[in-house]
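To whoever is covering the structure queue this week,

Two jobs came back overnight. Logging them here so there's a record in the thread.

Job A:
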Amino acid sequence: MQIFRNRPLALAACVMALSSLLAWLCPGRLRLCLALLALLAALVPVGFLAVRRRLGRRAAVCLLSLLGVFVGMFGSWLGFSVRPGAFASRVGEEITVQGYVTERLNSAPHETRLRVELNEIDGERRSGQVLLECGYLSSLQPGERFRATGLVRAPENTALYPERTVLLSDGYIGILRCEESGDCTVYAGTVRTPALTLRRWNRLLCDRLTQSLGREAGALAGALLLGNRDLLTGDTELQFRRAGISHILALSGMHVSVLIGALELLLRLLRLPRRVRAFLVPPAALLYFGLTGCSPSIFRSVLMTCVLYLGLLFSEQYDSFTALCVALMLILTVTPYAVLDVSLWLSFVAAAGIVLFLPAVAVLFRRPVWRWLPHGLRRLLRGLVTALAVGLFSNAAILPLLALFFGSTSVFSLPATLALTPLLSLTLVLPALVLLLPGLPPLAFLAEHSLRAMLAVAEWFSDIPGGTVPLTGRAQALLLALLAASLLLCAVLRLRRQGWLLLPVALAGAVLLTGHIGTLARGEGTAAVYLRDGENEMLLLSRGADAVAVDVSDGSAATGDLLVAALDEAGCTELRELVFTHYHSGMSHLIASLSAKVRIFSLRLPEPLNPKEAALSARLEQEAALHGIPVCRGGGELPLPGAELLDCRRTDTDAVEVPVLLMLRLGTQVLTYLGSGALQSDWRDVAQNAVLSSDVLIFGCHGPQSGGDAPSVRLPQSPALLLFGSREQAALCQGLPAGAPVVAGVESHRFFLK
């Protein structure tokens, strides 16, 4: 194949990566058997070499490929079968472990999650990385030794969050949960390891940046320069994601090339010879790799940089695609579980797209027309065309992966990247100089304003409506398959005309255009989705790309997860309004978590009925202000064509569960939601009249549960839909109308309104 011609290491690395992916789908013993078969097959070329005393090119390629299969399969067996075995076989059991904390992770309001390294399990020497969940706010810090007793919890795979796959891709062997603070105690001082020392330096440098540049600009500088995104707000990450420039926040070859270029310029100003520069740059790159957390993308970039400079040092020829594949081989050899890391594949596929297709752009600059242009203009146009080609080819290469893993992408990824590329150099070099020269205020001033300019550009692109395009349509699936096939064919075939390389770019544009057309061509009616997880309920109303969510329960994280999954399924990437029907203490956390995943344009709250609700309302307004969400109150028109909030009632009580009556006008139909206990409230007659005047009726589960003597309800003669959150709710009705569509006991139901 053309791509692997005279590149045996590249072929072996790609075969190894493919075998690692296939091994993930195989049972544990089958992985080991396939690894042993590959090893036995690799002995054939070795035997041929022993007999003939000569190993030809084809035999060498075969040997390297088979060894790659063996390493991939054997590593997968160790990473997915052997290492997690100590925990997978003890799910539900109580165990006692000893170890030390390596990192504090993001926590929920009333619990703490920690990444820990174990040394002992039930008195036996065992090692492995475990996710420790504390059902309380723990004070454990990185480096502290601990002893804990808890239950081994099984990972939960859902459509929204495949927990088992995510944990395995991060190197965890299991999950341990401790409910009480007494179950986890500190002992025997702290641990000092090189990794912990580098992580502590990283935090100290990030703190210094926030002190010098301000919290918002310093957090962005820490993410761009040091790879530490812990201080970034969810709003900032959402803005970068909606603008299609999340890759700027993930350290990659772009960041390394800017910093290495600045270092190279400094060494040239010092008039150091080329060999001295080539000798000094690789150690600096390796130090930067350790300081930034040793991520796969930065490892790829640092390794390629080291190979390049070592090649210059020894006057050897440098092949970027071979260096890229060798980096992938080393990552999968050392950490075989990284084969499940989505960011790894996005990084390598984007880099491969640039490496393979960018040389074709060089052909354009050999045309005679370029020689007629002035030298300065020729250099400027060459840089612009190269930057545009890099963005086009990298975005086209990863588009199938974005559709597979995320289901959406941004049409502004390329223009936003081009707009921020000049700023990126400033936002990397200036904060680095602030750390090296903290006593120069002009450097801090320039660094802060360049970072704020980057934030402003990202916010501007993210605020453009319709910028995020869903990739879930059938026509898009066909075009994405053709795009993947064209990328593969362009890579492996010898193309006589370089113009064929524009085919993947054209197909990528067709995918985005089809997504926009599909969004505009959706039905004229309003689609409604009823979502339920136990007693947590929510309504999602969508029309085209616009959506409104109505939370009729307690605003828990479960409803937020349901909403995000429903938005993805409906092909909506924005939430025009979030409506709360009553107050609960967990709603501020729901706003914060949703704002990190979905753009919310407005928040609607009910009028407070007592001092407790007034305090909760003020807290929700503060949380919304932190995320730039305007707040409105009461009823009125909703940001959907023909949608209006007619009535929203709940009892004036301090009880945890509150009966709710909700009435919405959607087009020509009226939708009424009745929470459990609504018919037993003081406004029972109002609720009965609302039922009789409605077209779509939803009898929900949230609220005080009705007893056996609960009053029944009369139904309209010809409702468009009767939906019961549970089958017990259907017992409240005095006979169902003949021919009426009835749905009972479902967790999700989608229907359309006229």
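Job B:
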Amino acid sequence: MSDAQVQEPNRAALGARLAIGFSQGVVLYGLWEVRESLPGPLFRALALAALFAPVVALAAVGAMRRRTLVLWLGAATLVTLGLGAYDGYVHTGGDWRDRGPWPRPPLFVFSAAALFVAHHLILPAHAEGRWVASYRSYFDGGWKDGVRLVLSAAFVGALWILLWLGAALFQLIGLDFLEKLLREPGFAWPATTTFFAVAVHVTDVRAALVLGARTLALNLLAWLLPLMTLIAAGFLAALAFTGLEPLWQTRHAGGILLAAAAALIVLVNATYQDGERPGHPPWVLKWAVRMAAGLLAPLVLVAAYGLWLRIGQHGLTPGRIYALACLTVAMVYAGGYGWAAVDRRAWMRRLERVNVVAAHVVVLVLLAVFSPLADPARLSVADQVARLRSNDVDARSFDYEFLGFQAGRWGREALKELTSDPRPAVRERAVEVQQMRNRHDPPARTPEARRRAFEVLGRPLPDDFVSQDWGELEPSAGCPGTCPALVHDMDGDGDEDVVVFRLYNTEVYHRTAGRGWQRLGQLSGTWCPGDIEAVRAGQLQVRPPRGATVEVGGRPFVLVPNSSCPRPGGPP
């Protein structure tokens, strides 16, 4: 084939990609301009489709026949429209609880992952004309386009760094036209998407360079596998002596264990590549792959056990459902890689089938999690409200803010239902959260609700402290459940003060003549497990005067007086 024959398809592909990239930028700019006027579900549906459908088209240009391209692009567009519309239906309310017009970050990230995996299941099968392609085709297409995607994103990042550098240079001589241009969405959106399309095309026609970068990256990653295998083996061996309790005390062990399992999966695939061949991989890496494949199962099982305990203790949350989704995929890999590791007939050949099955599982799980099938918000709200109604969780310590600000439509509907709950504490908190503008907004509480919000340690709280109109300075705000409160003379003046032990700070309040209760200061120091129990036991001693040491269980704290800047024009 002559150079002219090769260049003609390249020119056609470049023209098509430039048109796709520029059109995508124009559409995104148009959506940006009307983002406040469109309903949330409609905007998020259009935004998600406009972000991802053109990228699918960029990757498929020249690689698919027109009919297959139209079918796949149509399917991808419909799926992204549906996911975006459902996300907008659940997580936009048309009022101050609206989280903004754009799709949520988890939906954006995981939609991109699902489309990438699905694309590289379809493209090799289409190229070979069968439902299931050879593993070599899956490997070549997936890793090559992964490198292309990274290089294209890096190119766009470098472009914007240079543009802003140019704007800074012009500003040195008093010219700001370039900075104003860069801040214009009408320039930024089309420029970003058009240059991304250019990068996609360049990495396509310079396949040899991409192949070299891929080979180098995989070989470097492969030599990290023995290190990660040694770390995982050492961790599991140490776990036999330390037990599981130290893991649970961290409260994030499951995420770290799943991240370690994901690292092993990536490194195993970087080492295996497209299979065993003469001279590849070296025997050291072969043994590392077998060991790593065997270590996946215990890592994933420990993570599963920890997640099971956490859900049993505290119920479902969106984060735990995302963890369950990741755990489902990790179990497929762990079981499959263990099955491949025990095969003595061919070195890790079964891994190929496991990877293809796992790729389908990834797509199905992600579609379920971001659709009504397994919506984390819906499932979490149903579970948490059921725990509240069955008294598995105390009404005062229940996380009502989760319903109001993190669970979308399902949380708001549940909160509305709780306003008619027969228990006064539930009704009051539900009404309070409905009136709050954000999770950290102080609740507007009645004296009765404020009294119930405190766990009194010792003497009852003064009536004028409970009945005072605190406004934004609500002393019972910022506590998970109830706030421990103690009546004690903290400054040695003979009058009672109130100490409120919050989650992140401990405030001291003092009665003043003519001004009611005011914040005196806070106890500064490191609060440790058991300190509140020491206060309950009466082990709090004060050494006056104000600002001196306060001892809790023999440990020193400092009463730091409240201070503020003088008003403008006032006395210093």
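Note for Job B: The two ends are 87 Å apart (CA to CA).

Please reply-all if you pick these up so we don't duplicate work.
Q.
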